[in-house]
């Protein structure tokens, strides 16, 4: 359980990284990061989940090992390409976890899977985001110059200071970061039936980007069991509370649909 994570891209698929491949896993957990985030925020998760869970972290174009690829700046085309990329991996039960922008992508991937494949995730975890039908209150990056974007990232606290102060690195990263925020701005919620799967909404107690009513409002998007989980911390409680968070996810997966062998 404490092996050093290695990069594995299933079938050469650049959209997915497996820190610890587990081909016999009972359930795959697809994890999606926040705007500007990388799949490697999930590199420590395999050591915290049972052997029956395989963590598959989504790497969007322009991030991590895909730096240099052009980002996708609209929600619908990004979702379409992402769905195509993960469809071959849905050959067994799967769950979705998404934080911030990742929460919107995870939610819409779940809807796509139900509507297109008639296959629901065994569990949907949405983190750090109010319910998708509510108006977005966060300002975007449109119209800001690079210096202003860097200061916005500094204020959000999502990027280490050493990275923000590395001019060459930021020059590589800024196009993808801008694309991610443009994806958020282009998201348009459409009405639809609730998902037929359990849904857990997770939030930080000191996160200025969510509120109690907004997190509770996720309830309308499932016809299955619903839970709200609060964690100490701000918008990036996911990193601060990683062990407790992942243990909670593992416990809920173990109880989903009667549990899975090896969980």
Structure description:
With 263 residues, the chain is α/β, with parallel strands linked by helices. It has a single domain (10-258), classed as Rossmann fold, CATH 3.40.50.1820. It has helices at 75-86, 101-117, 146-156, 161-164, 167-186, 212-216, 237-240, 242-255; strands at residues 16-17, 27-32, 53-58, 94-99, 123-127, 199-204, 226-231. It has a 7-stranded mixed β-sheet with strand order 1-3-2-4-5-6-7, with helices on both faces. α6 (212-216) links the parallel β6 and β7 (226-231). α1 crosses α2 (101-117). Mean pLDDT is 89; it is low at 1-7.
| CATH-derived architecture | 3-Layer(aba) Sandwich
Strand order of the largest sheet: 1-3-2-4-5-6-7
Largest sheet: 7 strands, mixed
Shape by Cα distribution = globular
Distance between the first and last residues' Cα:
14 Å
Q: Provide a count of the helices.
A: 8
Output the CATH topology. Rossmann fold
Structural class: alpha/beta
Low-confidence stretches: 1-7
Summed over residues and divided by their number, the pLDDT gives a mean of 89
Task: Describe the SSE topology.
Layout: E1 16-17, E2 27-32, E3 53-58, H1 75-86, E4 94-99, H2 101-117, E5 123-127, H3 146-156, H4 161-164, H5 167-186, E6 199-204, H6 212-216, E7 226-231, H7 237-240, H8 242-255
Parallel strand pairs: 2-3, 2-4, 4-5, 5-6, 6-7
Antiparallel strand pairs: 1-3
